[in-house]
Every structure is written in C-alpha cells, then in structure tokens.
Design goal:
GMP Synthetase, Chain A, domain 3; 470 residues; 3 domains; alpha/beta; Rossmann fold; 6-stranded mixed sheet
Length: 470
C-alpha cells in the first residue's frame, strides 16, 4: 500500500473502515463507560456503528452531552477502562502476540506491555466551556509523535532545523503535540515559555530556523523580540499555532518585514481541535492556501450542522467533529470541537499532491467564544443555547445574537423567539430562559419576544440562526 499521504480514495476507504471497526467495536464500545451506556440508550449495537457509514449516522456529542451538570469529572467516563483480559480483545495482532510470548517467558514484562496500551500516564488540559484533563496512554503518545513526524514533513522541516517554541508552558494538547513532533522527527526544540525575555534568550543560544508562536499574539511578539535584540535573521519558518485568521497572518508578514527577516521565510499555521491530540498543519508548498492537512489513518474528520450536531442540510459554515482512531486513553467518537469550517477537501492537495483530507476555512472555537458578560468573563457554548431552542413546539422561529452592549460595553447573549400562536408569550420566555440555562449553563442576557418579520439579521453568521455582532 502507498505511504500515508499518497493513498488512493479506495485504499483510504478500506483502511479507515477497518480502523473505525477496531476503534468502536474492540475498544470504545466495551471499555468506555459513557459510550457503553450511550449505545445502550440509543438501542445501537457497536457493530452497527463500526464503519464509516455507521459512524456518520451517530449523533455528534460534546462537553455538555457528557457533563450535562457542568461537572468536568464526568469526562472520566470517556477514558477506556481496560484490563489484562480486555487487552486481548482490542490489542492489535502484533502487539498481542508479543505480549503473549512475553507472558510465557517473563510475566512481569507482559504487564508492562498491557499498561503501555491501556493505562493513562499523561494528561493535558482541554475544554472550551469546561476544563478537564485529557488522558493519554503510552501508545497514544507514540501515535502523537508519529503524526508529529509527518507534520515536520508537511512544514518542510528537517532534522537540521532547530525550533524555538514561544507557546505557554501550560500542559495543553498543542504544546505536547509540538514537543512530540520534534521528538518524532528527531529535530531539536527549545521551549522556554511565552515570555519575551525568555524567548529572546533562547534565540541567542541556538541557531533557530523555525519559531512557533500563538497565532493571536505572533505579530506583537516579533516586534517585542526585535526590540529585545533577539537574532531573527536565520528564521525560515514561522509556525502560527491556533488556526490563524487572515488578518493575523497578514500582520505577521508585515512584522517579519519590519524586523528584517528575509522574504523567503514561510508563514504556516497549525491547529489542534479541542479534545483532540493531533496537530494539523499546512503544507509548505501552499504557504497556507490549501487548508490544514489531517491524518486519515489516525482520525475521521467530518462536518455537522452547528445547531443540531446532525448531518448538515443547508449551506453556511459547519462544525468540525473528530473521531480518534487507535487512541486508548480518552477516546472520542464524533466529538464536537466547537470549530467552524467551510469544507473538507478530499481531492489531492493542488500544492503538494498529498491525498489526505484538508480542512479549509477553519475558525477555531467560534461556537464557544470567550465573552465578557456582566456577571464575569466566561466561554459560552452557543451549541447549548441552540440545543435548547431547536425543535420546540412552542416556538415558531428563533435567533441567537451575540453582541456588545452600547450602554456598558459588556457582551450580551440575546435570544429572539417567535412564540407559537397557541402559546402564551410570557410562559414561552420563561421556559426558554430556563432551558437555555440547563443546556448551556447560563441565563441569556434577555429573551426577546418577536414577530416573524422582526427577527434580527446581519453580523457574522456562526450558523443559520446564530449571529455574532462583536
């Protein structure tokens, strides 16, 4: 079979169907407490979900589905609860054979092989509306490192490249994935943190040819590094971590010109969807024009309606959902990332020729924006607000508008509803506010009763009925 980035559509479909079956039937369904209960409630057998078609018929889920009460401890139910006997049911053939041979010769080594595949040993923080630890086993870290070695190829980096990371030292999926990528590629990486003085000192220590920076602060950091006298002339790659927007990318290019970096330096973007552990990246040949390349043998990336989590039926931006393949710690099926995207391109990349799916027009965490509400700052899950409004018998139509108050400049979440003819408007307003609070964890700033022709329009459409005017 061809290499991971040159497989034909037929080869990819066969490979992914097999990988989905192993993940769902042999690992997640029997060993994830939450998914075991979920499939039972849905009346679905694991075998009916264990294919690409079956997976696509499964409703996407997110944080509030797993933790409806807002308690992040509920996320522990997604971690596979394996055992020595269960290991034999889901381990891949070569690993299982090696473990069984070891069991005969060295019983202690058998246990170490089992634990490498089943026992969570490493954690990073994840979450948008909630904050929870994401568990990885030793074998999960091996998968992340393998994907990271591929990322280095995408970025056009080699073992000779030296990278300095200006990412915060917090244990996040992006920070961990970047470190494991350098390890998997055999490339040096220094990670001093995000302080300007510390990054400048690291750049003086090593001949860095690549710099990884948070996309939102990259331009300012480059100016600050220049003022600090950090050597930047040797840079040939700037990696914007966090799915850079066009204006952020343009600001970085302008900053590079100001600080004297040669025009040959390439600006690329990378991103880890929330809950995931793999760092998607742009190929060097495209210079960011053809989207984020994914890993079809390690994940299934799909798009759903951002309001319902179901298969899309209309146009507009759609929510990215991810299914992890081969992961044994926190194992996610059809996970709602909160990211919006325009499309998933399945054809070969016109720049580099790789035949892997590419996510285009991605807007990170757009459906769970951080807001400065009057009650304090918090991330608001607009998917939960929509879930409280979709399909209501007492509401004919609705809109959710996220805007900034002209009175005190605070962010507001306004819910506009058109009550059904037979419904009492006051009761509808109370019921909507109550259900939004239960589904999203907060009361809307205001529930506005409206006529069908008076529903708001304009602003940025996060979904057909969720608008942002920030």
């Amino acid at each position: 079979m061809a290499s991971w980035d040159r497989r034909t559509p037929k080869q990819l479909a066969k490979l992914r169907d097999s990988a989905v079956r192993r993940q769902v039937v042999d690992a997640v369904a029997p060993f994830s407490p939450w998914w075991k209960a979920r499939l039972k409630t849905l009346g679905r057998k694991a075998s009916s979900v264990g294919s690409l078609d079956g997976l696509s018929q499964l409703s996407a889920v997110g944080e509030r589905d797993v933790c409806p009460d807002g308690d992040p401890r509920g996320m522990a139910a997604l971690v596979l609860q394996g055992s020595e006997s269960g290991f034999a049911l889901h381990a891949e053939g070569p690993v299982l054979r090696r473990a069984l041979v070891s069991r005969l010769a060295r019983p202690g080594s058998y246990r170490s092989i089992v634990e490498a595949d089943t026992r969570p040993t490493s954690f990073v923080w994840a979450g948008l509306g909630l904050q929870y630890p994401l568990a990885s086993t030793r074998s999960d870290l091996d998968l992340v490192a393998r994907a990271g070695a591929r990322l280095w190829q995408l970025l056009g980096l080699t073992r000779a490249d030296v990278m300095v990371s200006a990412l915060p030292t917090l244990p996040t999926a992006a920070t961990r994935a970047l470190e494991l990528a350098a390890l998997g590629a055999g490339s040096p990486l220094l990670a001093p943190g995000d302080g300007t003085d510390d990054v400048a000192a690291a750049l003086r220590l090593v001949p860095a040819s690549a710099l990884a920076v948070p996309a939102a602060f990259a331009a300012q950091l480059l100016d600050d590094l220049d003022e600090a006298g950090a050597p930047l002339e040797a840079l040939r790659t700037v990696l914007l971590v966090g799915a850079a927007y066009d204006d952020e990318r343009a600001a970085v290019r302008d900053a590079l010109k100001r600080v004297g970096v040669p025009e040959s330096c390439v600006v690329l973007s990378a991103h880890v969807p929330d809950g995931h552990r793999l760092l998607w990246g742009e190929c060097r040949e495209s210079a960011g024009r053809t989207g984020l390349h994914t890993y079809p043998d390690l994940e299934v990336v799909q798009l759903v309606d951002p309001e319902t989590g179901e298969a899309p039926i209309g146009g507009g931006p759609l929510e990215v959902v991810v299914t992890q393949l081969g992961f044994r710690g926190t194992a996610l099926l059809r996970w709602r990332t909160g990211d919006l995207a325009d499309a998933i391109a399945e054809e070969a990349c016109p720049s580099c020729g790789r035949t892997v799916p590419r996510v285009t027009g991605l807007r990170a965490a757009a459906l769970v924006p951080p807001l400065d509400l009057r009650g304090g700052s918090r991330s608001v899950d607009l998917r939960g607000v929509s879930a409280a409004l979709v399909g209501r018998a007492d509401v004919l139509d609705w809109r959710v508008v996220v805007s900034r108050s002209e009175r005190d400049d605070a962010d507001e979440v306004l819910v506009h509803v058109v009550p059904a003819e037979a419904a009492d408007p006051a009761e509808v307003a109370v019921a909507v506010a109550r259900d939004v609070r239960a589904a999203a964890g907060l009361l809307p700033t205001q529930v506005v009763l409206a006529a069908p022709d008076d529903l708001p329009a304009g602003g940025s459409a996060l979904s057909p009925r969720v608008l942002s005017r920030q």
